[in-house]
Structures are given as C-alpha cells and as structure tokens.
Amino acid sequence: MGDGATETKADKPATWSATIEKRFLEELAGSANVTQSAIAVGTTDKRAWQRRQADAKFRAAFLRALAEGYLRLELRMLQRALARAAGGEAERDAPTSHEERTWLQLLRQHRAAVQATGIFEEIDDLGVVTDRIDEKLSEMKRRLESIAE
Predict the structure, then answer these.
(1) Which pLDDT band, with edges at 50, 70 and 90, does 6 fall under?
(2) Among 35, 114, 117, 142, which is most buried by a count of CB atoms within 10 Å?
(3) Per-position b or e across 71-83, b if 16+ CB within 10 A of its CB
C-alpha cells in the first residue's frame, strides 16, 4: 500500500469458505444485490464475481439465487405499488424512494441474466413462488432467532 497505510486483518475480506458461500447465496436470493450480499458475509463483490467466473458449480448456484432475488424484488415492487394505489392521492404522488430506485436499478441490471436461467418458464403458478419465498423467510427467521438466543 503505497500511501503508508497498513492493511489490518479487519480490513481484509473474509476467506471464501463453504459457510460464506452458503450465506452469500442466501443473501443474494433475498436481495438480488451482489454488493450488499458480499458485504453481509464479510467479503467483496469483486471476490464473488471472480468466484462466479472460476467455478461452474458456484456460477449455477449464483444464477439460481440471483433469479430468486429478482423475483422477490418484483414482488416487493408490486406490493409497494399496490400499497401506494390503496393509500390515497398523497401516497400515490409521493416521490420514489432511494430504496425503490435501487430496486429498479437491480431489476434492469439483472433482467437478461435472470431471463437466461429459464426461471420464468419453471414457475407457472404464483402459489409456487409464494411458498418458496415463505419457506426462505421462515428459514431466515429461524436462523436469526437461533443467533439471538
């Protein structure tokens, strides 16, 4: 590091492991946000993209998780739109939030990759999607509760 700064152990991203990979994929399935998912598990988005490039098995899991996260984002956007529509004129006219702009950016950014997975053809019933999301949310809740204990 040429500026005289020293890199501490806390500054270094976590070494990629099976545990980090599993947690990263769970985060990605919840958000479709590679950067946010990497930060959540203590690594960098660059390392996640490099791993995706180098490991075919991880690449397949990455795409499945990304597709699931994409579907969740679409559902969140739909829920937000329905809430705005039901909320009256003030709610409908409210400016788009930073969060909503981020969601739209992620949807645009990942649309082609998700469409290439064929997930839209796999899922022909909204009930299937809802059940999968409920299962994941329940699993995440159980993990959070076990951590809190």
Answers:
(1) very low
(2) 114
(3) bbbeeeeeeeeee
In one letter, which amino acid is 86?
A
69 neighbors 24 (Cβ within 8 angstroms): no
Give the residue extent of every domain in the chain.
Answer: 12-148
Opening angle at CA 86, ends 67 and 97, nearest 5: 55
CB 126 within 8 A of CB 96: no
Listed in sequence order, the DSSP H helices in the chain are 18-31, 34-40, 45-54, 56-86, 89-92, 98-117, 119-122, 126-148
* Cα–Cα dist 134/83, whole Å: 20
Place of tokens 């796999």: 122
